[in-house]
Amino acid sequence: MSNYYDMIKELFDIQVKEGLVKREVLNKIMSQYDHDILNKLIEYKFFKKVADDYEIRPVYFKFLEFILSEFKPLLPETIEKYEHSITSLFKKIKEGIGKDRNILLQRITDLYNEVRDFTEAVEKNTIRLISETKELKSNVDKIDYREKVRKASFWIDYYITPLNSILDVSHSQSITNRLLDISQYINVRRLNFDDETARQQFEKLYTFLVQTNDDLLRQSKILTNELLPLIERIRSESMILTGWIEFLKNPDKVKGPFVPKSKRAYPYNNAMYFNALEYVQEYMYTSDIYLDEPDLNAKDKWIFNKEFYRDAMIKELPMPNFFEWAGKTLRGEYKEIETEKFFSLSTLLFEDDIELEFDASADRMVIRTTEMNLRVPKIKIKRYGLS
After folding, report:
1. Domain range summary for the chain, segments of one domain joined by +
2. CA triplet 40, 41, 42: central angle to 5 degrees?
3. Res. 314 pLDDT band, cuts 50 70 90
4. Cβ pair 79, 23 in contact under 8 A
């Protein structure tokens, strides 16, 4: 590929446009470059024979797409197929969580790969849409305004708006919303799972899902804040210019709107100089002024007294439900449960001298804080050596 790059690049461009490389076109290109490398391309599995024609195999085609940033945009309904595959794998992981270990590990890996393929498809579409929009804005091909409007409307209606719906986390049926639900489940499993290898795989998947969420949010912002306004502006500007050109061709056909005559005015009067001079002279000599600014953050900041709450927890051991105790403790002291205080209190679970027992079959309880509702498991704690 390095020695015959120019020739391979031309073959790639042909397949992008035509879907395959016809035999007569291949012969013409090899004659043009004076390189008969067909047998080598077949031997290295670069080409796959399709009847009398040839097709670049997907592994090479995707590699060239990547290094050339020549991605063919996928229709949003094609990307939506990942919602079904990701949901199906997630369902199987939940159903087999306590069954065969090797099957569980393989399903976690498959889910990781499927999410990765989804994010790459979204990124490729965004890159291609940015490229198409810039080309449309610069109008390199010198297309007329009517065609420019048609292309702008096409990209908005069939690619940008539907893709933005897929990435809308507030939409209950979007893939991004589904990934958020999955990450919450994986987060619990990475903290509470008996098998160390599976727990490490859950940790890896959770970290990847957090990064994926940030990446998808960035892609959504590009679509919403950059691409959509730009291409909408192209559409509106082109429509205005098209209408103006039609009007100039026959200005007497339609009566034009009234255009008022411009008149220059100044925001200050002739006496401005003397008014400004009087103001400066009045404040030329001033005494020192000291301002005591009030502290806007005067509210006392809550400091987590770990030793106090740890002693209170030790007195209650053995404890059948840690999170229930934490909620009652905070509500008894402050009449409400603040999220920050609840999470601070939850760090007591990681003390070295206590033992945790987690019942996976028990129903989860809901802790209502001032900012959110938290679904937490039932965790029994006791000290080492004590029943």
Report:
1. 5-68, 76-248, 306-384
2. 90
3. confident
4. no
